[in-house]
Amino acid sequence: MDEIASRVLQNKKVSDSYHVLTLGVRERLTIFPGQFVQILCRTPGETTPFLRRPFSVMDIRGRAMDILYKVIGPGTARMSEWRPGDSVSILGPFGNAFSIDDTAVGPALVVAGGTGLGGVHYLVRALKSRGVSVTFVYGVRFRRETAPAVLKSLGVKTEVVVEERSGVVTNRLKKMALERFRNCFVCGPTGMIRATADLVRGRIPMIEVSLEEMMGCGFGICYTCPVKKRTGQGYYRACDEGPVFREEMISL
Ligand SMILES: Cc1cc2nc3c(=O)[nH]c(=O)nc-3n(C[C@H](O)[C@H](O)[C@H](O)COP(=O)(O)OP(=O)(O)OC[C@H]3O[C@@H](n4cnc5c(N)ncnc54)[C@H](O)[C@@H]3O)c2cc1C
Ligand code: FES
User: Fold this and answer.
1) What is the mean pLDDT of residues 26-53?
2) Going by fewer Cβ within 10 Å, which terminus of the chain is more open, N or C?
3) Does residue 222 line the site of ligand 2, with CB under 6 A?
4) Residue 232: inside a domain
5) Is the same domain home to 67 and 161?
6) Residues spanned by the domain of 193
7) Percent of the chain's residues with pLDDT above 90
8) Percent of the chain topping pLDDT 70
9) Which residue among 212, 222, 224, 227 is best mutated to probe the pocket of ligand 1, counting the most ligand atoms within 8 A of its Cβ?
């Protein structure tokens, strides 16, 4: 585990409650789509928020790393106060990654809800650069939370489902010819992941989900991120064996 970034380059509000934090990273950093970092949301010497907070890497652009975050509590509120030039402590990368080097990756359906946009952004760009046709369906609760500039930067066909107007993402998925996709990648709240997996199971051959479970340490020692195994007994650790899982491996 390494300190991979130490300075804020930009911290931009992109919608009602979402921000994109851009950090300067050290040279030759290798991060794969699906991995996450642990952000210290306090300055050295302070005691709260004590634990680092996990965030997906939204994108890597040369020596800049983007993180999409929603302000929901003390840690993210502190992050929203950071200004260009501020010193920060970011550890990572952690966790596994989406399976995109598999030669079987074909037309892909990518589904995200809320902060899950940060979890799939880099994935969508990586799929696109490999020539994979991507359809992206994004669910957000309120229209004011939609971040148009972030969605546009993906450069793929995107359908935004605003819950207050059109209901949940699966309403839209039910109207799609799901059998034409070879892969389905999902990230967001557990309820959305479960409903999406239930709908696409048996219709799309490969389904991978990325979980935004609550975490303590983030690197496998505290066991506060259990994910129940689908078969057999026991649990995976979302931070270590995950956060990306083949859908059939886990019980949501
Ligand atoms: C692998 C991973 C990737 C993530 N990626 C992103 C990302 O790209 N963008 C983003 O905005 N957030 C992401 N999250 C969630 C992010 O870690 C939390 O929003 C953050 O820790 C909240 O910190 P806080 O101090 O502001 O709020 P807290 O005080 O920690 O939490 C405020 C409230 O939200 C609840 N809460 C906190 N974290 C979660 C969670 N993970 N799931 C459900 N409820 C929660 C708490 O119980 C509490 O009620 C990710 C989480 C994980 C595990
Ligand atoms: S967060 Fe500590 S083991 Fe996963």
Assistant:
1) 91
2) N
3) yes
4) no
5) no
6) 108-212
7) 87
8) 99
9) 212
Q: How many domains does the chain have?
A: 2
Give the chain's mean pLDDT: 94
Is the residue at 48 inside a domain?
A: yes
Structural domain ending residue among the three candidates 50, 66, 94: 94
Q: Report the atom number in ligand 2 closest to the C-alpha of 218.
A: 1
Q: Which residues line ligand 1 (CB under 6 A)?
A: 36, 49, 53-56, 68-70, 72-76, 115, 118-119, 212-215, 243
- Three-state SS string across the chain, please? CEEEEEEEEEEEECCCCEEEEEEEECCCCCCCCCCEEEECCCCECECCCCCCEEEECCEEECCEEEEEEECCCHHHHHHCCCCCCCEEEEEEEECCCCCCCCCCCCCEEEEEECCHHHHHHHHHHHHHHCCCCEEEEEEECCHHHCCHHHHHHHCCEEEEEEHHHHCCHHHHHCCCCHHHCCEEEEEECHHHHHHHHHHHCCCCCEEEEEECCCCCCCCCCCCCCEEEECCCCCEEECCCCCCEEEHHHECC
Q: Are both 89 and 128 inside the same structural domain?
A: no
Q: Which ligand is nearest to the CA of 235?
A: 2
Final residue belonging to a domain, choices 60, 94, 128? 94
Average confidence (pLDDT) over 128-141:
94
Would you say the CB of residue 51 lies under 6 angstroms from ligand 2?
A: no
Predicted confidence at residue 4, as pLDDT, reads 86
- Residues 113, 75: one domain? no
Ligand 1 centroid, distance to 69 Cα (angstroms): 9
Q: Is the pLDDT of residue 191 over 80?
A: yes
Question: Do 115 and 200 fall into the same domain?
Answer: yes
Residue 121 has pLDDT above 70, yes or no: yes
Q: pLDDT per residue over 230-252, tens digit each?
A: 998 999 999 999 999 999 999 98
